[in-house]
Amino acid sequence: MSPIVELNVGGEMYTTTLSTLKKHPGSKLAEMFTGQPKLRTDSEGRFFIDRPGTYFKYILEYLRSNQVPTQCIQDVYKEALFYDIEPLIKQLEDSPQIFGELVARKQFLARVPNYSENIELMIRIARAEAVACRRSSVIVCAVRTEEDVARCQDALNSLDMDKKSVVKFGPWKAAPGISDLLDCIQMDIEAKGYKISFQPHVAEKGFRFKSHDFFYKFLFTWW
Question: Which parts of the sequence belong to the BTB domain (predicted)?
């Protein structure tokens, strides 16, 4: 193989050296160019990698100069994981953005029972109610402590709604509070491409609990 390599990464063109691509022998990127080439070529004979080309420049810059990117950290991290470049992965995981996501937020959400399943349930409920509507709503019940569970159940029994459509989060044992959980729910649903907002759910007069102690209405806007 020629020591000069031309690449087509997701439609972005790059020229680099074989030694740069093979700088970390244990990586998937190095494996692509070890021995007989394992990649297809485009019409111009450039090796084609079907990944986002925008972020490959940061991967190359690191391989060339050991410079850790300071932009598009989350996206570059995904590419570093794909190419399995361990030194870059470790340095990115020490960055505030990745550290905060992996160590702080994700570890908190791991302590919230069935968090991921509840996110998917919210989306299914919202989509089921979206027929001929501009918006659909999902009621969330958030309880932080075991003591609140019984109170929440009493409140739920007093609500005039289909209890099966209420999605319950908690309890959990971690420092973040209910407002932090609600922000995470919004963040993760928005990351899936949905436009969403939330507000306290205010029940009718005579309700024996402050409904906003537990219940929140998430609004999905479709158009």
Answer: 3-100
